[in-house]
Write a structure and sequence with these properties.
The structure holds 2 protein chains of 2 kinds. Chain A has helices at about 10-35, 40-50, 70-85, 85-90, 95-105, 105-115, 235-270, 280-310, 315-340, 340-345, 350-360, and strands at about 125-130, 145-150, 150-160, 170-175, 185-190, 195-200, 215-225, 270, 275. By secondary structure, chain A is α+β, with helices and mostly antiparallel strands. Chain A folds into 3 domains: about 10-120, Butyryl-Coa Dehydrogenase, subunit A, domain 1 (Orthogonal Bundle), CATH 1.10.540; about 125-235, Butyryl-CoA Dehydrogenase, subunit A, domain 2; about 235-360, Up-down Bundle (Butyryl-CoA Dehydrogenase, subunit A, domain 3), CATH 1.20.140.10. In chain A, helix 3 crosses helix 4 (about 85-90). The two termini of chain A are about 25 Å apart. Chain B folds into 3 domains: about 10-110, Butyryl-Coa Dehydrogenase, subunit A, domain 1; about 115-245, Beta Barrel (Butyryl-CoA Dehydrogenase, subunit A, domain 2), CATH 2.40.110; about 260-410, Up-down Bundle (Butyryl-CoA Dehydrogenase, subunit A, domain 3). Chain B contains 15 helices and 7 strands. Chain B has helices at about 10-35, 40-55, 65-70, 75-80, 85-100, 100-105, 110-120, 120-130, 180-185, 260-295, 310-335, 345-365, 370-375, 380-385, 395-410, and strands at about 140-145, 160-165, 165-175, 190-195, 205-210, 215-220, 230-245. In chain B, strand 2 and strand 3 form a beta hairpin. In chain B, helix 1 (about 10-35) packs parallel to helix 5 (about 85-100) and helix 5 runs antiparallel to helix 11 (about 310-335). The chains are: A alpha+beta, B alpha+beta. At the A-B interface, helix 7, helix 8 and helix 9 of A face helix 11, helix 12 and helix 15 of B.
């Protein structure tokens, strides 16, 4: 039955993570963006909240064994994005490795790789999806895998892999058949020091600057068949893609909300021509549209998340939601800079940073998941 | 718990409404668009009879027993009414998918009835609304707008002068939906008139004028861009005498009540108008989708957005805008049903729906090129029908203004 109210538990989680975002993450955001690094103790504090991976790890591996909910994850992701999307992406990167294994791994893979995430300290881990070409497309991955004798060989390049240099193991997506779209995509659990794998120097991007991302190159990288995620059964890559879209879009909604609130509060204080600029229709209408679009964006994300929770792949709804949010958040953050005028342009108020971050959403995929 | 599923009992009714839309409305859509001032009598009879049946068998879905009820907070749970607004929004979308003009022309208590419900005494509600339960098709209408104003409804110049046991109305109203049919049937028109111009808003009151009252004359039925099956009337009140108990609610000129009460009806009707728009938008979207399928043109969800064809990109934009508008509209209606104040959310929904559906229907005509432009198909009609939703029941700009005031905490004096 149609219902727009979060459960009491979800409201509590939202409020807890939201307070952490505002009190701990937000004050660290500007410095993290300028220096390109996230304070380690902040990451540990976030890890201690238990919402990154621990709640989902099965009890037999030391986790809380909670049933995963994409809606709840989206609520958490929004609050983390409200704090800072780059810090949030760093903090939740381990999910990129752990959750697909949790969802699609063989019993042996789950046994081998999930226990370590029940640890009391942050465990860097990641997945490699994006590729450094302008026409990068998850339905036609250029990173290829082919059989060679008893084993497999990976070739190709990846980019925008969060925390690759610090992650012992990575999940790498490659295609065994570029004509098969999502059906041909498989995941491979690979050690960072695998022969044939080179990790590039740290990348430099327009936004998400606090997030350490790297390129990978696979040159005839030999891997054992056991590395294939899900064994012979493979993975439901379409569903995994939907999960990443929902996560990224949810974080973006949080950032959009931050930008809208910031612009709104500024406009109520800033005066021109005898009144607060918020009292001028041009500004007021911009703020009204921002408010509408934050809510519309959130509901689209929730609908896709809800479909995931019903066991559906949510392909259309997650794709439409993510693309909508990429546009709406760009517009919202652009308007936030505009409302702040010259002050919005200076690297002191956060709005210019949020605009730089927002522009990335159209290109980025797979750097977060629910 | 977040949930977007329409429950089975409602879905059943949606199917019924869809059948009406498809088999009763669509076949006559073009005819009553071309013949703007003719009466779709058969349609009226069919809908009136169906309504009579529906009224008697209406069992609206009730909210499930909430956790509050389980934990003993039964009073709170009991206060929650059945999901009436959400139900109305969902079924309205379905009927307007059929034909928005015919939907507005459907004989019922309409906005006049809504005003009676919002501002009338229990006795007045019975007196004015019981007629809609039987007899011949009839209409209720509401007349607010005048030649001199639309959005600024505090500028009412139509006067209601007390004379003994009567009020005498003088003035001109325009853009009254259903006004002609209300006047010609056993219906009524709720007229906003002022008992004291110097008092401003508090002086504006709603008055019920019965069909056939001397001094009320429909002087014109407009020729419109769209929703042509709906009659839009200009009405002159020339010493139109009505009994004093036709004033809805209290006659006192005080800050509360009257004007405010009727303005409050807009919180309920805004989501319904948004739903109207969404129905029209969906008609256009469905048409384009079916057409693309027929032509074997794929719409590829999941590929890199940069590789989408222009056609795919536009279609997906239409689709997601409609979804966004619908979710905001459902939310606004749901809030009313669970007793939450929804003034902000209703205006958000109306602003978004009007804008989104204008764009969707305009884009749909564009995408189908010469076929979209032809009056051989209903697509061009839907673009014309859609546009009104951006305007009536609160223009997009007024709704944005309301949203802005709420989010900024400003009064109408502080932001206008």
């Amino acid at each position: 039955m149609i219902d727009f109210e979060l459960s009491e538990e979800q409201q509590m989680i939202r409020d807890t993570v939201g307070a952490f975002a505002l009190e701990q993450m937000r004050p660290a955001a500007r410095e993290a963006d300028e220096t390109g690094s996230v304070p380690a103790d902040l990451i540990e504090k976030l890890w201690e909240l238990g919402v990154v991976v621990q709640s989902a790890i099965p009890e037999k591996f030391g986790g809380a064994g909670d049933v995963r909910s994409a809606v709840t994850s989206a609520v958490i992701a929004e609050e983390l994005g409200y704090g800072d999307i780059a810090i949030a992406s760093h903090a939740t990167a381990p999910r990129l490795f752990a959750f697909p294994i949790l969802e699609a791994g063989t019993e042996e893979q789950r046994e081998r790789h999930l226990k370590k995430f029940a640890a009391p300290k942050f465990v860097p881990a990641t997945a490699a999806l994006m590729e450094p070409r302008f026409d990068f497309d998850t339905t036609t991955l250029a990173t290829s895998v082919r059989r060679e004798g008893a084993g497999l060989v990976l070739n190709g390049r990846k980019c925008f892999v969060p925390l690759a240099a610090d992650s012992e193991s990575l999940l790498v997506y490659a295609s065994s058949d570029p004509n098969a779209g999502y059906q041909g995509v498989e995941g491979f659990i690979i050690a960072r020091n695998a022969p044939g794998l080179t990790i590039s120097a740290r990348e430099k991007n327009m936004g998400f600057k606090a997030l350490a991302t790297y390129g990978l190159e696979f040159k005839d990288c030999k891997i054992a068949p056991e590395a294939r995620l899900g064994g012979e059964g493979g993975i439901n890559f379409s569903r995994l893609m939907s999960e990443t879209r929902v996560a990224l879009a949810a974080m973006a909604v949080g950032m959009a909300r931050a930008a809208y609130e910031y612009a709104r509060d500024y406009a109520k204080e800033r005066r021109a021509f005898g009144a607060a600029i918020a009292q001028k229709q041009a500004i007021a209408f911009i703020l009204a549209e921002m408010a509408i679009e934050v809510d519309a964006s959130r509901l689209l994300v929730w609908e896709a998340a809800w479909e995931l929770d019903r066991g559906e792949d949510a392909l259309a709804s997650s794709y439409l939601a993510k693309n909508y949010v990429a546009n709406s958040v760009l517009k919202i953050t652009d308007n936030a800079v505009q409302v702040l005028g010259g002050h919005g342009y200076i690297r002191e108020h956060p709005v210019e940073m949020w605009l730089r971050n927002a522009r990335g959403l159209a290109a980025l995929d797979g750097i977060a998941t629910v | 718990m977040i949930d977007f599923e329409i429950e089975p009992s409602v879905l059943k009714r949606v199917k019924m409404f869809h059948m009406v839309a498809d088999s009763v409305m669509r076949p006559i859509s073009r005819e009553f668009d071309e013949k703007e001032h003719e009466e779709p009598t058969q349609y009226f009879q069919t809908m009136w009879a169906a309504n009579a049946m529906a009224e008697s068998s209406m069992d609206l879905p009730k909210k499930k027993e909430s956790s509050e009820a389980k934990s003993g907070d039964g009073a709170k749970a009991a206060a929650r009414s059945p999901m009436r607004n959400l139900y109305t929004v969902i079924t309205t979308e379905e009927l307007c998918w059929g034909d928005a003009g015919l939907f507005l022309a459907t004989p019922n208590a309409g906005l006049g009835g809504a005003a009676v419900m919002a501002a009338g005494t229990p006795e007045q509600k019975e007196r004015f609304l019981s007629r809609f339960r039987g007899g011949e098709p009839k209409w209720g209408a509401m007349a607010i707008t005048e030649p001199g104003f639309g959005s600024d409804s505090s500028q009412v110049t139509t006067t209601a002068t007390r004379e003994g046991d009567d009020y005498v109305l003088n003035g001109t109203k325009i853009f009254c939906t259903g006004g002609d049919r209300a006047a010609k049937s056993e219906g009524f028109i709720v007229v906003w008139a002022t008992v004291d111009k110097s008092a401003g808003r508090p002086g504006i009151k709603p008055f019920v004028v019965e069909h056939g009252t001397p001094g009320m004359t429909v002087v014109r039925v407009e020729n419109k861009l769209g929703i042509r099956a709906s009659d839009t009337a200009a009405i002159v009140f020339d010493n139109c005498r009505i009994p004093k108990d036709h004033l809805l609610g209290s006659p006192e000129v005080r800050k509360e009540g009257g004007f405010k009460d009727v303005m409050a009806t807009f919180d309920a009707t805004r989501p319904i108008v948004a739903a109207m728009a969404i129905g029209v938008g969906r008609a256009a979207l469905d048409f384009v989708r079916d057409f693309l399928k027929q032509e074997n043109i794929p719409v590829r969800y999941g590929i890199s957005p940069r590789r989408l064809t222009a056609l795919e990109r536009d279609f997906m934009e239409m689709e997601v805008q409609l979804k966004a508008a619908r979710l905001l509209t459902w939310r606004a209606a749901w809030m009313m049903d669970v007793g939450k104040h929804n003034n902000l959310e209703a205006s958000m929904a109306k602003a978004k729906a009007g804008l989104a559906v204008t764009l969707i229907t305009q884009k749909a005509v564009e995408l189908l090129g010469p076929l979209g432009y032809s009056r051989q198909y209903l697509l061009e009609k839907w673009m014309r029908d859609a546009k009104i939703n951006d305007i009536f029941e609160g223009t997009q700009q007024i709704n944005l203004l309301i949203v802005a005031r709420r989010i900024l905490g400003y009064s109408s004096k502080e932001l206008n």
